[in-house]
Amino acid sequence: MKKIALFVVFISLLIACNPANDKKVLKEANGRINSLLVVVKNSAWQGDLGNELRKILAEPVLALPQPESQFEVSQVPFESFGSMFRATRNVLSINLGDENSFTISTDVYASPQKIITITGKTDEDLINLIKTNSKKIISEFKTSDLATVQRNILKKYWDPENIKTFKKQGYSIKIPRNYNLVDDTGDFVWYRYHIDGANSMEIITYSYPIENENDENGNAIVAHRDSIGKKYIPGQVENSHMITEEAFTPHIFEVKIDGKKAFETRGKWEVKGMYMAGPFLSYSVIDKANNRVVVVEGLTYAPSVNKRDYMFEIEAILKTLKIN
After folding, report:
1. Domain containing residue 182
2. pTM strictly above 0.85
């Protein structure tokens, strides 16, 4: 019996010492969504390099009623980048070195974490690398934050099999449980999350057949959106309903959603005949296999409140779209 006990202890020690089991345990990353820590020397931050960074990182988010920058940016010099800051979710590190390089690292000091490191031989090289990779910088941090939001808010979501429209139409998105059903007709879905008071975030989805080139090329998005508003989203007074704000032309970009051609539309909505308005984001996905356009949209009503993070959460939800 004694020999068996010794053998078990010996095997346990072998397993404990096995490098395959020696996994690094990372602390949880800190920092708010859409925030970014820039690690760079103070003199560079206060000079041309810092000005170039601020131009990129503080660019306003499209189609919000009040100007809001893409990121809340903080800066520390390298000597201050100690244990207190190393667990920051998004880090942009910029320094002089022996070669020009642009590298992206994941989960270095914490998880989830994204660190972009830019090294240049001169300040001019650093500025050129920042300009050349500006879209990549924004995309990497935004994609990482979207994944974080999806992990946090989609731990519990409504079962698409129990949503009549999703089951009938053969597509779905993951709608968090804190959103409440407003309407589900079999052709149109509407869920609402009350932020506080009368403020809210809305998720709607619908589809329409591809009947001409305008439908397939994204030229009829506003027309279809307004017809849906008239049919399904009434205002609080007679003959009022949601429309696309007439004084503001939406921004439309071609993107990929669920591996399919789609159009991202960022604009402003209003209720005809009432003083109600706010930003919206929609994805019109070209579902060629079923000869239709599937639309998933989110909008926010929160007067006098910053809306960037609300719209970012909506984007995270809409991008869970799956078409059968």
Report:
1. 160-323
2. yes
